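Bench log. Compound arrived from synthesis this morning; before running ITC I wanted a structural hypothesis for how S-adenosylmethionine sits in the protein. Inputs:
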Amino acid sequence: MALDIYDPAFVKTVFDRCSDRYITFSYVCSMGFTERWRKQCVAALALSGDGPKTGYDLMAGTGEVWPHLLASFPEVERIFAVDISSGMHRRAMERLHSMRADRVSFVEDDVLASDLPESSADFVISTFGLKTFNLGQQRELARLTARVLKPGGRFAYIEASDPKGWFLRWPYLLHLKVVLPLIERLVLRGAQDFAMIGTYASNFRDSGAFTAMLRDEGLDAEFRKAFFGCATLACGTKPT
Ligand SMILES: C[S@@+](CC[C@H](N)C(=O)[O-])C[C@H]1O[C@@H](n2cnc3c(N)ncnc32)[C@H](O)[C@@H]1O
């Protein structure tokens, strides 16, 4: 039977194996861009209004976005982080001990199979969590986003994308598809797990289709580019 790289069970094994080296590899190989893009995603969330806020960090990984989220929005009282990978969960909990554990709860689950309550969130954020979903799964995720947000709630997703039309597109794709797998093979001696992440990223294209799906679910969704489209965002509001 053909390997389905979008099967959640398969995705989980990729990230379980990557989890110990994920933070360093993603920072070094993106030359710091992933951190910059996480901050842009938090800025696009643009929480406003009075009162404490509660929401979801979907495909949370090891909680890379939490420091930015908590620093930018002190009114965030609690983050419910969801991730399918036990390896990422374990690393996130290690990190939790050194920060505000009272403000973050971690749910280890396949987000599409999870039963997150309706109208339970003031915000939904996700950084680099879209690429391992095929179009059908992205549609389910759009539906889930619309369901869990309260009216007036905000959302922001960011994902590495194919910068079509940019004059440095080919060097960038070469970096993603050839250089990173080579570094992994020669330096990390890994099982080509980060090469898999490169495959997901180049298959993903950009957040345009997902933005349209969010609109289909009744959300006010905007498509934005970061750094010439090397990352793209889908962000907006659930109408009141
Ligand atoms: C590239 S990492 C992103 C981690 C983090 N948000 C960041 O900013 O680096 C993608 C994460 O999505 C998680 N993931 C993939 N499919 C998932 C699913 N169906 N349900 C929950 N988490 C999933 C993986 O385990 C992985 O930790």
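What the model suggests: The longest strand covers residues 149-160. The chain has one domain: 8-237.
ITC booked for Thursday regardless.
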